[in-house]
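Service request form, structural biology core

Requester: graduate student, group of Dr. S.
Request type: structure prediction, single chain
Budget code: on file
Notes: please return the result as structure tokens.

Sequence provided:
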Amino acid sequence: MFERARRFIPWTTWAIVALALALRLAWLPLRPPHSDEGVNGWFAERVLAEGFYSYDPENYHGPLHYYLLAVARLLLGRNLWSLRLPTVLFGVGAVWLACRCGDALGRRVAWMAALFMAVSPALVLYSRWAIHESELLFFSLLALRGWCRWRARPGRLAVWEVAAGLAGALATKEVWVVHAAAAFAAWWVWHHSRRLVGEPLVAPSRPPWRWVVLPALACLGALALLYSGFGRDPEGLTRFFAPFAIWTTRAMQGAGHEKPWHYWIELFARYEPAALVGLILSPWAAVAARPPLRQLVLYGMASFAAYTVIAYKTPWCVVELVWPFTFVAGWALARLAVRARPSLAAALAGALTIASLVPAVRVNFFRYADATERYVYVQTIPGALLPVRLLERAAAGDPTLHDAPIQVVMKLSWPLPWLLSDFRHVGHWHDDQLPSGDSAVLFVDDNRRADVEPLLHRRYFVVPFKLSPAHAQASVYFDAERFAGVRPARSRTFVPTPPPAKPAASPSPSATRKTR
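Core staff response, request fulfilled:
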């Protein structure tokens, strides 16, 4: 069996996949959890507690990610390894799928594209985050792999791969509709421009209906199970289309994440040299390449144009823009190797790889919390979690702390709800809400301290606290009696103001007379 695997998957594929795995797995818990990771981890906790995920269209994400995180949490416990391992595996799987597209795109093209994907700063960084982009990338490549397999060797497996890729995208993130529109636009342009570029007007074969029915039914059934909470929330099916009206408004208005139209070009220029080369060469490839690469080029250009028009831009969305252009760069280098000098093509491929690997290592392992890096976006400050670690250490020595009241009086508090999941009595207070009084620990925005401190009657150790550049400055109050043995460093003591003394009552006239 191993000999067969070696025959069909050359060592080059394994080397590229090993590189991708090493970059995504090494020191995985190094970076503190992002607020979005905390949200996703909390949803996974709810899945385990309630047995299903109740699909919320205002969350803008499908249910698959939360079920996968829940399985990892069940197997590995609540930690950053279990939170991030699923996305790591999807990110590595996407690189492997890119390698497997060589039967239709050419082995050199596929290998170089996979190599550029393996070292891409964005694809490495966001595979190390527990967010949806890595899964959407995987399912996009799975659909591409099925399409390439069909072009090379039409069969049932190709249909299953395309169907699974499409279903996985639908179960992962609402932006699948943008990519579906981009794919249709690419097909339309390809179909109507074949005569202009001299492409033979021979349409690719279509699969027989009997090959399509079973994969389609299976994937629709899987989607129905996921969106209905495996039958426990049937109304989730009716909410499937609800997010698109909401998201369309959010996407075009920006919702606080507005970026200029050239935002993606700036990211490509700073971090993604191979994708930048592919983007620049795309108009040429759209004319000179042959299917299915030409269709992929048109799809990449249509996706890039759509994301450029959309005002809502967060840096992790670049994941879905990078990968098509790595194939264009690979195609250009392969063409150079065949028609000119192989040594020059190899040198350029090596230079592009190193130019991507250097920022990938810098952003992922050294400057992962440096706000000057464009990919670092609302990142949790490493020192912010010291109060949480102190609470966990204290609870390890005093298990009763897991049942002690903890109050969070913060406007924005993620990823705290996930980090405090092991504590059973955590109250979260927003807007004008206030806790009733003392607690073992209180997390309080500084602009709410004047409201909270008059309610406290115990002594506390107070530590400054700030989750990220986007969060307000806050303070953490530790009960001085319960945390006397582990007093936080650089803390001050809060002493409650004693209530004003009641004025002495004036003696009544009758009492005065009796004294006399």
